[in-house]
């Protein structure tokens, strides 16, 4: 399968999800030629997602997933569904599992050999290692990580599936109900408002455009198994927030350190960083090196 055509006809790609990341992936794919449809319980709110076709689905119900596939008739799927609020998942582990793992189980049963890429997370690791490659043994740090790992295992067992684990995703998300870390800090600091962030929580942030580019490239490949995508710079949220402040020309002292355990990041692994042992050997990813977070931050603020 190529991204644009399969057997001389236009490829239909179904994105299971319609949030910030799903919308960017859908727009990237649509720009490459496929007919793209997003799907979720509620109509998408973000501008990226609103430009694409949309169908309703409740992935926790097998009959709803079956109806979606019958209507969309996809050739391939990108699976980016379920709540990504890690703190919410920790407080509601059964609901998180019902959507992430239950939805993956229904999709796996109904894929029928179709190509699929699942977007997963660094939270499948405990956070003891400074950064994790694909060969690192999994040991989920929280309920979100457990639900996503179960989804990974279920979908990988179905055959023609690749799992793309991504680190902390960022970019402008002014319309989101729960904007990502960059957007939240940038909006507050641009207004000279103080920000308190962890100084003991490490990430390897990855630009949303890079996630969309890798997803599109890997969907068109025949690779299966797991691939990691993390940004090239490992840093604390405190360091990143102070860099955002400097980029706006405001006093970095507006950003104060806070122990991770005293913040909404308490249930996240201390080290939430990924690197890839595999990406360098995949020709589809040539020329798609992840953007450095400081470089991307400067460009995002400039625009």
Automatic annotation (TrEMBL):
In this protein, which residues make up the domain named RmlD-like substrate binding? 12-279
| Record-linked SUPFAM superfamilies | NAD(P)-binding Rossmann-fold domains (SSF51735)
Question: What InterPro entries does the database record attribute to this sequence?
Answer: NAD(P)-bd_dom_sf, RmlD-like-bd
The superkingdom of the source organism is Bacteria
Q: Which Pfam families match?
A: RmlD_sub_bind
Q: Could you identify this protein by its name?
A: dTDP-4-dehydrorhamnose reductase
């Amino acid at each position: 399968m190529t991204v644009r055509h399969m057997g001389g006809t236009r490829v239909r790609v179904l994105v299971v999800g319609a949030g910030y990341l799903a919308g960017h992936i859908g727009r990237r794919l649509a720009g490459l030629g496929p007919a793209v449809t997003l799907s979720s319980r509620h109509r998408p709110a973000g501008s990226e997602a609103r430009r694409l076709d949309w169908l309703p689905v409740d992935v926790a119900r097998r009959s709803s997933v079956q109806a979606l596939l019958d209507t969309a008739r996809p050739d391939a799927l990108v699976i980016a569904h379920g709540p990504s609020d890690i703190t919410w998942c920790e407080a509601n582990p059964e609901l998180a599992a019902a959507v992430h793992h239950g939805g993956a189980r229904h999709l796996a049963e109904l894929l029928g050999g179709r190509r699929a890429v699942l977007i997963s997370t660094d939270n499948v690791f405990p956070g003891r290692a400074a950064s994790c490659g694909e060969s690192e043994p999994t040991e989920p740090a929280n309920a979100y990580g457990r639900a996503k790992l179960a989804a990974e295992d279920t979908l990988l067992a179905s055959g023609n599936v690749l799992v793309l684990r991504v680190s902390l995703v960022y970019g402008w998300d002014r319309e989101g109900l729960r904007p990502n870390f960059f957007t939240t800090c940038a909006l507050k600091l641009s207004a000279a408002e103080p920000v308190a962030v962890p100084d003991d929580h490490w990430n390897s942030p990855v630009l949303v455009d890079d996630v969309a580019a890798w997803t599109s490239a890997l969907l068109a490949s025949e690779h299966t198994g797991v691939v990691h995508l993390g940004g090239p710079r490992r840093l604390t949220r405190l360091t990143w927030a102070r860099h955002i402040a400097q980029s706006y020309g405001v006093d970095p002292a507006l950003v104060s350190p806070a122990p991770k355990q005293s913040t909404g990041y308490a249930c996240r692994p201390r080290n939430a960083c990924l690197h890839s042992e595999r990406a360098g050997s995949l020709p589809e990813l040539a020329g798609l090196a992840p953007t450095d977070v400081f470089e991307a931050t400067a460009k995002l603020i400039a625009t």
